[in-house]
Amino acid sequence: MKTIEEIPKLMNVLNLYGIGDLRFEKKETYKLTKDNVLVKIKYCGICSSDIERVFINGTYNFPTIPGHEMSGQIVAVNDEDEELLGKKTSIFPLMPCFKCDACQKQEFAQCATYNYFGSRCDGGYSEYLLVPKWNLVLFNDKLDYKIAALCEPGAVAIHSVNIGNIQEDENIAISGTGTIGMMIALIVKSRNANVTVIGRSDESLEFSKKLGFNILLTSELKNKTFDKVFEVVGNNESINQTIDLTDNFGTVILVGNPKDDVLLDKQIYWKILRKQLILKGIWNSSYSSKVNDWKEILNLMTEGDIPFESLISKEFSMQDYNKAFDYLRNSNEKKLKVMFKNE
Ligand SMILES: [Zn+2]
Ligand SMILES: [Zn+2]
Fold first, then answer.
1. What is the DSSP string of 60-113?
2. Which pTM was predicted?
3. Ligand in closest contact with the CA of 284
């Protein structure tokens, strides 16, 4: 084994013991095993799915360490992997079975029996993480850890834009003002299409306005149409609205995870038929040798032309997790990504 620093026997983690029962505690640090490296986590984003995991739905087994939006430094490797030592990395959180039909075709997001950091197994709310080499997405010194921790939502965003096949000068609307919605908006704009963000209130659109997007309140949508519309909310109102807003022969790109059963009004369903709309679903991201959304988003972040950093609202130490979740759940401030930072 080769290391760049002394690895402590115990590490700090946030461990979820049950719904609403997250604990800051010490846990034995991972031992290095074959084909893995030890990563010191520098930043881990708090996903809206983490909030649901911690406070509403729980997860597959307890206790589990949540967190899947990670960046860090490789601090310990097996002798044969010395070239990886000290490298900066982001982490693709899905560990596929490599055996099922989807995996054979490198469609890993569709794997039948995958493992996943931070939900099916321990993840990134942790000082260290043992990571298979296959899941490392390295980046260079031009990019800092903080922005790179946006890689997971960024990969979903770029995947959505690529599946939507966005072209120059197209009129694009985005329903949803959260982190992924804003990332989609930024990437679409960088492809020289016209971006309009739709939100329910002036406050929710404040950030879009600052970034120079056109904005529309949901109450102002009458007679408006767009070539392609991204749905990034996942509730009935937004799903019906996006279909209504899409022009003849246009495309609806469905990104938001549904909060409840989805019900389409009859006259909205008619519009899918009469306008001959295309509906495309988005799940996770591509991570194959041919298409790799992770490398693509890291390249965009490294180039530095898109202001991704402005999407990060606040950072907290893991020890202050109560403050972090309180801010996310209870503060009235318009916020996007909140992250845990390890010293
Ligand atoms: Zn996430
Ligand atoms: Zn598989």
1. SSSSB----EEEEEEEEE-GGGGGGTT-EEEE--EE--S-SHHHHTT-GGG-SS
2. 0.96
3. 1
Residue 96 lies in a domain: yes
Residues 329 and 338: their CA atoms lie apart, in Å, by 11
297 falls within a domain: no
Distance CA 179, CA 181 (A): 5
287 lies in some domain:
no
Number of domains in the chain: 2
Residues less than 5 Å from ion ligand 2, measured at CB: 96-97, 100, 103, 111
Structure tokens given for 184: 């989609």
Q: Give tens-digit pLDDT for 300-316.
A: 999 999 999 999 999 99
Cα 92 to ligand 2 centroid, rounded to whole Å: 15
Q: What is the CATH number of the domain that holds 144?
A: 3.90.180.10
Mean pLDDT of all residues belonging to the chain:
97
Alpha carbon of 111 to ligand 2 centroid (Å): 4
Q: Is the pLDDT of residue 343 over 80?
A: no
Structural domain boundaries enclosing 276: 156-281
Q: Quick one: average pLDDT of 67-90?
A: 98
Same domain, 160 and 100: no
